[in-house]
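Supplementary Methods, section 5.1.

A reviewer requested that the exact input to the structure prediction be made available. We therefore reproduce it here, unchanged from the version used in the analyses.
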Amino acid sequence: MNGHATRATARPGPLLLVDDDPGLRRTLQRLLERRGFTVRTAGSLDEAYGVLEDFPPDFAVVDLNLADGHGMDLVRELRSHRPAIRIAVLTGFDSIASAVVAVKAGAWAYLAKPVDVDRLVTALLGDPVALAAVEEPRPMSADRIRWEHIQRIYEQCGRNVSETARRLGMHRRTLQRILSKRAPRP
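The structure derived from this sequence is encoded token-by-token as follows.
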């Protein structure tokens, strides 16, 4: 069960939304509030920690890459203080390696941007195993396999670009360009 308290369907409640894109943050806040959540937002890790001082959420939606740090740090912190919290991690750079890291850190769901709000709500309120079963498996493209390999090594190196480039036998700037691009489609 990966440390999750229950796999039963939940009801909307207090939700912390952390994303450094103000437009996306406002849109998601509005759409999640329409679906019954009480939403507090933050644009950075520092801001999120400030919100948590007086707002104990039952749910969280956390961007993986924030301007002031990595969303996994917040996921671990939330999980340590609120073991039953349901956390959805959002990323613009989808990879299996990042998904594994997110789930091991305590994420309830892992979704690629742009995220469909109905899918996000289903992920937060429902059973993520059932949600994953709904998706049709597609074979990965060669570009996607390359991307996944790079992401796996990148995570193994603690997101250190220089060490990852060394292990992959490529120039650091080349790797930086690859990492700055969006993940290829499967």
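DSSP finds nine helices and seven strands in the chain. These observations are discussed further in the main text.
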